Automatic annotation (TrEMBL):
Keywords for the protein's UniProt record, in alphabetical order: Hydrolase
Protein name: Glycoside hydrolase family 13 protein
Domain of life: Bacteria
Annotated organism of origin: Streptomyces zaomyceticus
Pfam families the record matches: Alpha-amylase
């Protein structure tokens, strides 16, 4: 069997495995209960040993943390809770020494209401140049008492807030996150400068938050369900922004990944044209239920979307906004939808974990790149956060009906017997860790040949060293009902059994890896995956 490695040259991003770090919950270096850059630097060897290629950091910038750092007050400063700019530069360099590239998060749709620009806009008053950088408007109604339009929020609640002088400002998320006006040259120039700032500090790429929301209908016309074009999602003018950004990235050899939620495959692909973004997140696969037909369709649709622009697909099972995989796959409804999140949804965690293990092998065998959210390699379940400890604004803006996203953001367990499971010494973590999480701790899983961590480590090593993984082709193989089987290049085969019965493996010369043990007859049990070599 020929050995090779996915590309690690200029096109490394086409087949990389990228690990997502949510800094607040990764590791706490100073013992104050909040994760920080010192904690990340100390744990970088874990990521190198795991075998990932790059690390994506959710926002680490100066922020009031109303929305977990996605309310940025200063793009060129590290939040004091996380550390300093000097520490960030050291982290980037230390990661490089370990063979890890760094990707930072940019939030271009909005800033914090504590950002210098917005504070100046409030002070300057109606009609001022400072307010032109945002969307300030007079209200409707006899005395301007009604919002300028009826746009729905990306969270629950209103999208307009009135200031004391009577004008209203737009915020698609929380009132503390005012939307920027992307038709204003200052906004474009500022973000181009921010990109250069981080590329010059050695980052390899940039993840773009809410990438399809930047440009707005200039008349701010009302939203009408089903009527195109949408007044603030996927406006045509947005592509001019990303063309200018791509020129900057090309100067530094940097790459982009966009957070693009779009149901239209053709319009989605426009973001991935050769002079725009390199990659975009694949949310159809992430939200897909654990059903063979739906998964196969999601895979086929994804590959078809990317083929016309020759862009690599990205695959992800979970992130900092989504119910953790082991929990979601143990529920009656295994799909993900923000609208259906609710307190008290029952789950069979044993079943969900078995499926999560199989999904790991499925995902890592698909063509393209993979994003791995911190804690997924440990099989962490969604945590139940006591209501008096919830911090996510999605919960509060829903009137308390939405459990929010804190359950997937709980600080990681590193050491089974240590205080806070080794997340940090001293103060309790900013979110409470469940009492039974010692079994998920990194040190305990390293010593267990059957652990989720061992499975991921073995899979990533094979992905690096066995020909056929990463970028390339995929061909479906004949398989029984409820079974997904496909071939990659160089004789690599992946089989996933989603049926209720054990199934025979296809003819093969080598069994590379399984997500769980085969049955006594050598058949693949339900909710189990296998990698084979023909």
């Amino acid at each position: 069997m020929a050995a090779s490695s996915p590309s690690r040259t200029a096109d490394w991003w086409r087949d990389a495995v990228i690990y997502q770090v949510y800094p607040r919950s990764f590791a706490d270096g100073d013992g104050d209960g909040t994760g920080d850059l010192a904690g990340v630097r100390a744990r970088l060897p874990h990521l190198a040993d795991l075998g990932v290629d790059a690390v994506w950091f959710t926002p680490w910038y100066a922020s009031p943390m109303v929305d977990g750092g996605y309310d940025v007050a200063d793009y060129r400063a590290i939040d004091p809770a996380f550390g300093t700019l000097d520490e960030a530069e050291k982290l980037i360099a230390e990661a490089a020494d370990l063979g890890l590239r760094v990707i930072v998060d940019i939030v271009p749709n909005h800033v914090s209401d504590q950002h210098a620009w917005f504070r100046a806009a409030l002070d300057a008053g109606p009609g001022s140049p400072e307010r032109a950088r945002f969307h300030f408007r007079p209200g409707r109604g006899e005395n301007g008492e009604l919002p300028p339009n009826d746009w729905p929020s990306q969270f629950s609640g209103n999208t307009w807030t009135r200031v004391p002088d009577g004008e209203w400002y737009l915020h698609l998320f929380t009132p503390e996150q005012p939307d920027l006006n992307w038709s204003h040259p200052d906004v474009r120039h500022e973000h181009e400068d921010v990109l250069r700032f981080w590329f010059e500090r050695g980052v390899a790429g940039v993840r773009i938050d809410s990438a399809a929301l930047l440009t707005k209908d200039p008349d701010l016309r009302d939203f009408v369900e089903g009527v195109d074009p949408h007044p603030y999602i996927d406006q045509d003018e947005i592509h001019d922004v990303y063309r200018s950004w791509r020129a900057i990235a090309d100067e530094y050899g940097g790459v982009f990944v966009g957070e693009v939620w779009l149901p239209d495959a053709e319009r989605f692909a426009r973001y991935l044209r050769p002079d725009e973004l390199h990659t975009a997140f694949n949310f159809n696969f992430l939200a897909c239920p654990w059903e063979p037909g739906r998964l196969r369709s999601a895979i086929d649709d994804t590959l078809a979307e990317h083929a016309p622009v020759h862009a690599p697909a990205t695959w992800v099972l979970c992130n900092h906004d989504v119910t953790r995989t082991a929990t979601r796959y143990g529920r009656t409804d295994t799909a993900f939808d923000f609208a259906t999140k609710a307190f008290g949804t029952p789950t069979d965690l044993e079943l969900g974990t078995r499926r999560a293990r199989a999904a790991a092998l499925l995902t890592l065998a698909l063509p393209g790149s993979v994003y791995l959210y911190q804690g997924e390699e440990l099989g962490l379940p969604e945590a139940d956060i006591p209501r008096d400890r919830i911090q996510d604004p999605m919960h509060f803006r829903s009137g308390g009906t939405d459990p929010g996203r804190d359950g997937c953001r709980v600080p990681l367990p590193w050491e089974a017997e240590a205080t806070a499971y080794g997340f940090g010494a001293g103060t309790d973590p900013w979110l409470p860790q469940p009492a039974d999480w010692a079994r998920y701790a990194v040190d305990r899983q390293r010593a267990d040949a059957d652990s989720m961590l061992t499975l991921y480590g073995t899979a990533l090593e094979l992905r690096r060293t066995v020909a056929g993984f990463g970028d390339g082709s995929l061909s479906w193989l004949p398989a029984g009902e409820g079974v997904l089987a496909f071939a990659r290049d160089h004789g690599l085969i992946c089989v996933v059994n989603l049926s209720a019965d054990a199934v025979e493996l296809p003819a093969h010369s080598t069994l590379l890896l399984t997500s769980g043990p085969l049955d006594p007859a050598g058949a693949l049990p339900p909710d189990t995956a296998a990698w084979l070599h023909a």
